[in-house]
Amino acid sequence: MNELNSVDPKWAWLPFEPTSDQPWNQTLAAHLFRRAGFGADLATLDVAVKQSPAEVVEQLVLRNTEANDFRAAADTLAETVLAGGDPKQLSAAWVYRLLFTPNQLLEKMTLFWHGHFATGAEKVQDARMMWNQNQFLRQHALGDFHELTQKISQDPAMLVYLDSAINRKAHPNENFARELMELFCLGEGNYGEKDVLELARCFTGWEVKGKQFRKNRYQHDSEAKTILGQSGNFDGEDGVRIVLEQPQLEQFLARKWFRFFVCDEPQPSAELLQPLADAFRQHDLQVAPALTMLLKSNIFFSKHALGRKIKSPVELMLGTLRSLQATTNTQLLASGLLAIGQGLFYPPNVKGWDGGRTWINSSTLLGRANLFGKILENSATRFDGKSLTEALRNLGVRTADTAIGHFAKCLLAVPLSDVTKSELRQTYQNQTGDEEQKLRSLLHAITSLPQSQLG
Amino acid sequence: MNLLTTKILWSFCLMTNIAFIGVCCGAPSQKERTAIELLPKSIIAYAKISNLDELTKLILEHPLRERLLSLPEYRAALKSGPFKQLQLGLAAFEGSMELPWDQAVTKLTDGGITLALDGSQGGFVVLLKSSDEATIDRFRSFVLALGQLQNGGKAAKEGDYRKITAYSLSDQLKMAQMGHWLFLTNKSELGKAVIDQYLDGTHDSLQSNQQFQHALAKMESVDAQGGSLAAYVDVAAMQKAGIAKGMFSEKLDNIAAEVVLGGILANLRHAPYATANLKVNVEGARLRLVTPHQRDWEAPREYFFGAPALASAPPLIEVKERLFALSAHRDLSQMWLRAGDLLTDKANDSLAKADTQLTTFFSGRDFGEDILGSLSSGIQFVAKTQDFTGILPSPAIKLPTFAIQFAMKNPAETQPELRRVFQSFAGFFNVTSGANGRPQLDVGMESLGKAQLITASFVPDRAQRDSEAAPIFFNFSPTLAFIGDRVILSSSLKLAKELVMQEQPAESPLQTSNTAVTLDASVLRTILAANKSQLVASNMLSKGQSQDSAEAEIGLLLELITFLKDAQLKLDTTDSQMQLSLDLHLGSGNAK
Questions:
Q1: Do A331 and B436 touch (CB under 8 A)?
Q2: Cα–Cα separations (whole angstroms), residue A218 to A122, A225, A238
């Protein structure tokens, strides 16, 4: 039975107000930071619980619309890396950004759009083009969806990826037209084959030359077209506008955001999503207000959301590191993420990452544990600039039990059973080596638990 | 007492004294024994460190140490866990020795430190000799106290061997003091052998090992200034014992390793022993590794040494702002053709594939016999900085330029062949680049005096023409140049032009040198400094550090390089000896 069917849509989207039954505490604050970003350390959570949940959400959103020193430094790093021309190094530069950014929601949404408007470097092969797209997504991540979609339609990396670098009026390329409707805006069943053909005609003459977008008027089909019930002498921008006007758009995106931020399953009904969809349309397709509503909502802080998502590789690895104030070799991490199914700049196909249960199988589960092992063994991995032993001692954590409690508090959305705690204690005691090795081994054991895969 | 009894007593005393004097004059006293006299004949590796006080002084007074101490990161590191423990240990050491640590170390080791590996039992031993027995006493007490601390308060087990007390610090480590000597070993039997030698002073020691004595005589004497290490290894014994098997393989797995090291490793397989001598002083360090050599050991690696006579390397190429130069004698054609005798099956398989492809590339001409065979055996390689001033587009990452130079045996025949191949390569590159959206090469020809240059330069996109952060390709303008019997393949046109205009020396100064290498640290620093932003970015990504921390670390690296001036490596071979020398010259620590 779909338990979401019993949720009152009106209640679902009202702002969450803490009560004695459900107080605003570290657990809920951690949940917010895990979902709206990648995680937060205890000090950040302590600050957050002193504010209201609404205030924290507003800060998360607000912070992302202003430029800051970190963004400049991270952009400079990426530009420097681009000189080598290797998209894989660019992955490492983005991992670095995710690890250190104060603009967590911005980066989370950039990651979302990267999976939504999926573009893979293995086909594009040009690091500069991939970076330009990434910067563009970041710039508009919480902004106007109109502008985002219009501009991504003219992004050279996107067009190369969808084989739309050349689009001639004699043979309109249907690829981009189809993906625009099916994957980016409306979803399956909300358009017909005729709409695909007609929309493709709008994009004729759109091409990539010298890695730049341009319109070739000689190749543009300027005849009348009929798309989704509208007729006229449409060009590409008109085509995108028409698609964006469709009422299915806001439901389509609301459903994607629900799955991305609230829970993997079950599927919410259209009725449940309608208030969120309406708000998105009422705000003229501005992303920030819709997300603010989602992140402040009752349903976001309800049992339907807490611990109800399987963390993606990025969420798992970056979340763990951020929660423990850890830093590491980002090149190792970037290549590891690719190996376990979520290489930044390397989505598997045009649909992006399916997410949910597809993150976990026997191979990826082992891959996650192995990646944690490699990270923890790497000499570059430090915790607040120190060894794990020193970092924990500074927090008053000196025994195996307190370490288990501390890690559980920092990392887990679901509590540990006494049996599991006992097993972890045993792991610690059986480990040979010095204190540092024992603690890292304990941390490795915790991050490999099924509970750690949930966020 | 009557007269007879007195006479008997006096006679006895006289005889005893005569016997005593005889013992003293006939053999060194225990105090005078050297480490060589204490070690058994079965030692297969030996190293002696002398003049440790000079080395300690050098380290403590070097400007590098002062620089490190002024660094906040270094001072912070001194407060960290492991360093704190080290400092506690040092304080305990100074307390035990009743001297500052450097003076204590000097006094403790003024008779030398010797390390040795025993072939018969696989044991090692470390011998310390001090002129002051009390110093050795104090050190012994310190080691015992340290051992007790590490063993949870349990004192070391003691044993007695011929009235000398031996201590078992752990299962693997034993210690004993014999007067002015103290030794540590992991094998009891070896320790007993050392004690026997100390007490009895027999001739059955390392002293009587003729091969060792012969090797020792050949080593350079210890310089009065600067610490030094002298070492000896019985290579034949190590080979027999199966130590470092990889080094003694007949065939190598890696063609590059074969070209660089093949002759050295072949020599080691036959050499009965090897010696090393290291001298360290304020000007730098000098390491000499020497083994005997015989011409009949060279087969099948004659390509490495030269045949019928030993060949020497051509001169090192001299250019302004030179970073690195290498010169070697290698008959590459012979090496390629005899690969079956030199490389493993796996390496030969790869070589066979490469051979097929290269033969196709060279229009059916055999790569090993015809192409490599057309080149003389002298290889010269040089790298230097590139100056991009006034040149656009200028790459963001600034690499050094490099070139390789050979002499052609038959220029008239070889020149057109190589020219065609170069042009084919540029064409092939352009086809694949075009398909992948990368810049293409524009090929041309130039004459410079008597030299002919076939040039290739990357064509920038319109948008990149004035760029000062162009892709890495723009470091390269591959050029093939011919002048006289010389052929030069250069990564840049500028370097090719510089080399063709050079006068060639009539004779190589490298008379007995098979291989010579030089590296200029100041030029290395210049190149790294020009790419500082790249190094900082790489540091940030690989260590997850902030920009400030990465900049500090790279800044420190650049500063540390100023303490090195240059490095030289030479391999000299004569009919009886092979010598590998490494010279490091220290700099002043001031950047240009």
A1: no
A2: 31, 18, 18
